[in-house]
Amino acid sequence: MNHIDDPQTQKANLAYIKSAMDEPVLTKEREQELAYAWRDRQDAKAMQELIKAYMRLVVSAASKFKNYGLPIGDLIQEGNIGLLQAVNRFEPERDIRFSTYATWWIRSCIQDYVLRNWSIVRTGTTAAHKSLFFNLRRLRAKINESSSDGYLTDAGKTQVAKALNVSKKEVEEMEGRMRASDQSLNATFSDDNEEEVGSLLADNGPSPEEIVIGMKDAQSRSKWLAQALGQLSDREQTIIKERHLKHETVTLEELGKDLGISKERVRQLEQKALMKLKINLQKNIKNPSDFYTSDLFHAA
């Protein structure tokens, strides 16, 4: 995945980078002064001066991740979020430069952004996966243990796993993910071939023709059933509808109580009604097997 910014965006990014690099570097004493002013008095001007002075750290960190194909402007914005978190969490009484502290937060936010957006398939969730993702390329180049297909050899995978304290299986999975890339289903195979990638995906669903035929068949079966049911007595119609044409089937015992007859008598009437339905359908339909697509008549 590669992203190319439009000219307007590129111009805005360059202006931001120039502005960041033009800001003066702060001394340790000035860092401390501004950090105390923000933490203890919520001095907004002090916070702004601290942030502006270290926007250069954001630009520097973002540039190190530009090869992952994400917009440099987005990487800078994520780095700015890390810089803001550093300003709010920094403890000036500790003997550490703010620039050192901020660098960790900036890098962490950018790395999280890259992991979330590098691929539509989630790349990794654990600290081990994160370390593997950002160090695999460097270690591959250092180890130089690749097979003819370009993948790490078994010995190379073992070395990477040992160096990053992960399993060899995790190395294999991450290498496979990083070697693959997302591709739009609307992408064409070449400039000369307008056929899209998605056109080769198998569609296991019914075709439009099959859907229309199915709808017409369903309408026909409904009409045939209504005609056949109309030739049954009211009690027989009730039994068939309650026992076979509803989502929740009524038991023989429940239906017997409603009709004032025994469970066995309901069963006998049900068998008789099903047989009548079959006979009526055979009279009205040229090929009765076209109708028998359910379990409706299996008991008859």
Descriptive report:
This protein is 63% helix and 0% strand. By secondary structure, the chain is mostly helical. It has 3 domains: 118 residues, Four Helix Bundle (Hemerythrin (Met), subunit A) (Up-down Bundle), CATH 1.20.120.1810; 58 residues; 83 residues, Winged helix-like DNA-binding domain superfamily/Winged helix DNA-binding domain (Arc Repressor Mutant, subunit A, Orthogonal Bundle), CATH 1.10.10. The mean pLDDT is 79.
Number of beta-strand segments: 0
Q: Name the overall outline.
A: elongated
Quickly count the domains.
Answer: 3
| Weakly predicted, low-confidence segments | none
Give the distance, in angstroms, between the N- and C-terminal Cα atoms: 63 Å
Named CATH topology of the largest domain? Four Helix Bundle (Hemerythrin (Met), subunit A)
Overview in brief:
The protein is mainly alpha-helical and 300 residues long.
Write the layout of secondary structure elements.
Blueprint: H1 7-22, H2 28-41, H3 44-53, H4 55-63, H5 72-89, H6 98-117, H7 127-143, H8 154-164, H9 168-179, H10 208-229, H11 234-244, H12 252-259, H13 263-284
